[in-house]
Amino acid sequence: MKTSTTSHTIEAAKKGDQTAFTSLLNQYWSEVYHFILKQTGNETDAEDITIETFSKAFSSIESYDNKFAFNTWLLTIAKNTHIDLIRKRRNLHFVDITDEEQQYNNIIDDSETIEDELIREQNLEIFKNYIRLLKPHYQEVIELRFFQELSYNEIASILNEPLNNVKIKIMRAKKLLAEIILKQIDQNFSI
């Protein structure tokens, strides 16, 4: 059952109040994270799914119906995000190992060619150019998390910030980066 304070926080978040978003993240992070951790058994997946859950929830908070408990709404988003991840991973498995002869015919040579390496480097440079469009503090967390592959705790220690602040900063950086990329794609296709 949600308290009156939570109701006011949700209403403030619906109006775009960043403090309200942070408050909701702090209040529900642990519940969502532990729910997903039980489902996945993997801390990294649980963190990623939890971040994605809050990103989706905050992006569509206007659609939240206060007839339902806020944590139930969040856990439903988390469950669906986890299901999406499972489906994506299932689609990556294409080798049929039931037929021993076919098994070897279905294996793809995934060694990187020179062309693959050039394309990867070009895509990485394009991606880094998008990152440069972010504010410096968002650039920094993206660099630490995705290029240096540091944990949230390590980033919090380096930045001397609370763990939840780092999590929400990374979530916001990812969301802003996605918006920048989509905007650039739209501009390129409208030319």
TrEMBL record:
Keywords: Sigma factor, Transcription, Transcription regulation
GO BP annotations, alphabetical order: DNA-templated transcription initiation
Domain RNA polymerase sigma-70 region: residue ranges: 26-90
Pfam families in alphabetical order: Sigma70_r2 (PF04542), Sigma70_r4_2 (PF08281)
Gene3D superfamilies for the chain: 1.10.1740.10, Winged helix-like DNA-binding domain superfamily/Winged helix DNA-binding domain
Gene Ontology molecular functions: DNA binding; sigma factor activity
InterPro entries to which the protein is assigned, alphabetical: RNA_pol_sigma-70-like (IPR039425), RNA_pol_sigma-70_dom (IPR014284), RNA_pol_sigma70_r2 (IPR007627), RNA_pol_sigma70_r4_t2 (IPR013249), RNA_pol_sigma_r2 (IPR013325), RNA_pol_sigma_r3/r4-like (IPR013324), WH-like_DNA-bd_sf (IPR036388)
Domain RNA polymerase sigma factor 70 region 4 type: residue ranges: 126-177
Coiled-coil regions listed in the entry: none
Presence of keyword rRNA-binding: no
CDD domains in alphabetical order: Sigma70_r4 (cd06171)
Family: Belongs to the sigma-70 factor family. ECF subfamily.
PANTHER family (alphabetical): RNA POLYMERASE ECF-TYPE SIGMA FACTO (PTHR43133), RNA POLYMERASE SIGMA FACTOR SIGV (PTHR43133:SF60)
Matching NCBIfam families: sigma70-ECF
The protein's name: Sigma-24
Source organism: Myroides odoratus
Gene: rpoE_6
